[in-house]
Queue: 4 jobs
Job 1
Amino acid sequence: MERLLALFVPPNGDLPLRGCLFSNTAVEIADTEHPVRVFVADHKRDFAARAAAIAGDAGAADPTALADQLAILFDGASARAAALNDIAPYAQARTAAATLITHAIPKP
């Protein structure tokens, strides 16, 4: 569980928060066939795949579904933190993620 929750550690460094480089790039380049957009999409898929592997190792009943949910929480936390210039959304997303993880991993 802790490996999955580690996704929601706030970024180090000073304010202002800039959000996710990959999400910001996707917003700025409208052409979905542009090589940079393809790279961004590949990165987002890889992020979810790595989270799914961790979720599977942790015993999640449906690791892919859990990973997709956590990726959405991460993207939302990153965007909200940047919009508010506040790291609190990472802690809020971590709390929500803990609930999702608890429900996704069967008790022994």
Job 2
Amino acid sequence: MALKHTILAFLSRTPLSGYEIAKEFAEGFGGCFWKASQQQIYSELTKLEQQGHVTYQAIPQSGRLDKKIYSITSQGQQELTDWLTQPTEPTAIREDLGVMGLAGHLVSPTIIIHEIARRRKLHADMAQQARKWMNT
């Protein structure tokens, strides 16, 4: 999976500004499976536009640069569909909580239990974000 596929997947559901895409990566469902800075996202949007995978509508803003609302093109949908039909390999997971479990015998169980509860809340929040995206 590449950053472009994640961006195209978001745009396949609804047109978004670069800011809105970056916000999804920072706070929403996108951050569950991919990390990207605002700079990386805008750079990728430029490439996608040059490749004909996205277009944008410039919306004038008073005293600011025009806001660009990006939409996926039919060529972008084809790129995403082609990627979706290809087999993928599992990605190695680097998860601190797994290592904490491995070494957890060295500390009070309360510490590990607290971290598991905290993570459970984070995952519940991510699941809520996923439901939001699946219902759009």
Job 3
Amino acid sequence: MGLKQNLFKQFRKPTGSLGRVIGWLMSIKNKDRASWTIDNLRINPGDKLLEIGYGPGVTLGKAANRLTSGFIAGIDHSEIMLKQATKRNKKHIENNKVKLEQGTIWDLEYPDNHFDTIYGSNVHFFWKDPVEEFTELVKLLKPEGQLLMVFQPRWTTTEDEVKEVAEKTKIQYEKVGLTNIKTDFKKMSPVTCISIIGKKISPIQATNDF
């Protein structure tokens, strides 16, 4: 396996000594993206949130700081990221404000209509079938709940390509029934960051639309 392929694999699922370094790099290099993610979430103190792919736990910690009676769960398939995020959010975990798990979204055991917000950063383009994954996440959202993906398509070379990637994700949102979809862009290094947020339709709205 070449260096480029190995690095891609590590960012997808950090493992071993290199994975620990990757986690450290993510905690430093992704601060701007983490802050922008939090700004876009508009967290209420009592919200129930779920982060998909929490990595070293930086964004998750920022979200937990805004909660009082609320709660945030996290799932990540990397054991190393679980360890780093647990260490970084020790106090929140002890206060039962944060619960971290290792696995994929298919391992989550929360009931449908449970979370006010589900979000992820640089995760969905690693999925084999994003529409299938988004469908499962929408089930976990409360009616009127929001799904947010923030990501930097580092393989792009032009702003037009960035916009094409954003449009592709927007179409995936539409396929799973999300509404009020809003796409934003922000200049970041090394490539423009994309934020796409959509809302789960309420039963009342669905009836009225029908």
Job 4
Amino acid sequence: RPEFALNHFWKHKIKKTELLKDVFNIPDTWLSSRFKQVAAREALDMVNSVQEVFDWNKEQILDSITAIENKIQEIQERLDTKQNRRKINNLYVKLKKKKMKYDMMQPHKPKHKSKRMCISALIGELQDCKNPGKFDAWLRLSSIGNKTKIDLPINFHRHFKELNKKGRRLNSYIVTEDNIQFSFEIETGPKKEVKHLIGIDTGINALASTNEGKQFGLDTKEYIEKIKRCKWGSKGQVRARKTLKYKISEIAKRVCQEADLIVVEKLKNLSKNTKLKGR
């Protein structure tokens, strides 16, 4: 577990280039220097990731504060009416909450739950199986400490075999309780040139409405109502759901043929019957 390194890097911020032998050898354990180096790198990545997310969230709130202040200044330059004063008061309330949230923001130290481990070529090596038929390969973990070695049996699935033909497998692994994750480097070529871009708004009355005024799936609501009329768990409901799924896939293919790049509205964190302010 990189818990010992997490506590150290949380208090003492360092760069990856400063991760030298004197740093990752601070804990006095039976583990080898290589193993401690791998654990220290994983811990440092976790700390840096938390810090990056925290800085991004802080920047977003700061942008919101600036936008509210600009909006207040814009309204103040208008006529002094009761409606404008009410808008300014509401904006000041929002501004106060945003500033309070900004001042109280604190990054939370990450926790390693010991359910996964990142392994590099320093201690891990993928070896072919000597007795084919039982397993496809072994992931040998060495340089752990006290001459300890661990061999993890691996069976490759179809997805691995396809990626292994397309690209180059990297010597880094993520070991979990049930599986081992591999990384591949695949040459994808130059990015596709975007000539036609459209925005999509999804809904029930029209499954997809574009910014160009086109609407797709105007009969989607009928399919949904048909599912609601069916008895829960019945064969009729299963057939109706499959029909709706097929209809959505058909419309999605048609929409994708309309443009090179599609922008879709983000609808996360919305609850049922939500009323949007100012709509």
